[in-house]
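Hey L., structure's done. Input below.
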Amino acid sequence: MADIMILEDDRQLSRRWKGALTGVGHTVEIVETASEGLALAREKKFDLCIVDIFIKRDGAYVPDGGVILISKFRQVHPDRSEPWWSTVPIIAITGASGILGGYDPLRTARDMGANLMIRKPIPLNEMMKCVEDLLNGAEGSAAGGGGAA
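Output:
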């Protein structure tokens, strides 16, 4: 089975996904910031990452969310050494509805290299299917509960 990292600020949601994913045999690590995700990625290889694009603390977005993690994972390395995370499948998620001031976070995630983009709310069965599809080599695009980019 797969090792999966979840970057999600909604603890209830991340625990729900972790329970479902571990229930089918996957190993899941949960982080709440891009900094935590990068530190963990230096210690352990993952087969898939589920990344919330925006992270909130005390009602405000923090500049340490999924956009940062995806950009760090996909950045070009000048020495041509490609760490495992440069090709790991990434599911980018957001609860943001529509486009924020002309900025579409899911389109940005796609342009940065995420494999699949999903808007919350995400039915659990849909998330499980997306995870299994990407782990089995399916090409990603857009899906999602509240509409996809």
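Residues 3 and 46 are 5 Å apart (CA to CA). The longest strand covers residues 3-7.

-- N.
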